[in-house]
């Protein structure tokens, strides 16, 4: 019996599928942007991809000190990327019957009150990260709460797992319960201290996080802009144009702004690494502004359907040149699974009168998400030099899947079936930098 080798060189053999670029929407037999090896090998050294190719070509070239792990009848894809999610809302997922503004008052704010307790925050952070990894998500852009303790707890748990994560403290100084309010100055100072402590530490990045325009005064939004000027490589993470009542409220609160998005633009919050969740009710000027500033949209179809917000126009937003990733938006989203989220994205696109190919759905969950977060030089596919976060999928994980895949003729069909019928049960393993 061969003993496991201790070298940092590892090879993983299975079917392998990843994207080299945006494959578009049409289901051609095999777009040039898709790379698929029916019997492939992913070669990893010290946590980074060194090669990916067919087993027939790579087996003879494997280093003598390389450990080979084989996953028969499994499919390896890159680790999935969730561009918008709230870890404090883990315990209120599947809350009944409200739309956005009422949902915040009834469910969200009381739940987030508990995160002043670092012990509670750490327990939820651990459960949250367990769920992400169980669902094959290896990177996420994550809301904390207004409490600095919530961010410390999250980053401590993420650092212990060596995860590439982005998170931040919510800034919120009005139109919310007093127990969740900060001030423009305390929000700035607490965020600044957290940036100094966590941003760029290991695989962690910080996001300046005003919840949404209605809960921040102009003074606080200006302070958020000041943080982006002082720390130009941090992220900005917020919500925009999710719900029509919300849009109308912003118009009342900021009468000098041309649009909801313009509120953020006027305060210097739109730039590369600005992640704007939802973006459903934008006009042409808004989309052009996002493209010109380099801000990204997070498409959250499960959440948008669950709380009745509307149908995101993926093709139109991308046609304007806006970067788009996909978000589960738990807890308004009802699943941690990006496979299930892609399932809903397909349906939303159908309701818009368009079709979404399975390769485009995988792109949104992997390389498209990485591009929207400006991390495509590090994650998103298996190009040499990328961090080796990947997921091993079992296409026969349920009796129905096992029966259905017997009739799949192509990898496109297999992938589509996995997205339509799959969930956390198809995730056999989630590997972080090869481990």
Class of secondary structure makeup: alpha/beta
Helix proportion range:
25-40%
Topology, number of strands = 15
Number of helices: 16
Give the C-alpha Rg: 21 Å
Mean of pLDDT = 96
pLDDT below 50 for ≥5 consecutive residues: which ranges?
A: 1-7
The rough form would be described as globular
Task: Give the SSE map.
Elements: E1 9-19, E2 34-45, E3 48-54, H1 55-58, E4 67-78, E5 80-86, H2 100-112, H3 118-134, E6 137-143, H4 148-160, E7 164-168, E8 170-171, H5 184-198, E9 204-210, H6 218-230, E10 235-240, H7 244-253, H8 260-266, E11 274-278, H9 284-293, E12 296-299, H10 301-306, H11 314-319, E13 323-326, H12 338-351, H13 358-365, H14 367-372, E14 390-393, H15 399-404, H16 411-421, E15 427-431
Parallel strand pairs: 1-4, 5-6, 6-7, 7-9, 8-9, 9-10, 10-11, 11-12, 12-13
Antiparallel strand pairs: 1-2, 2-3, 4-14, 14-15
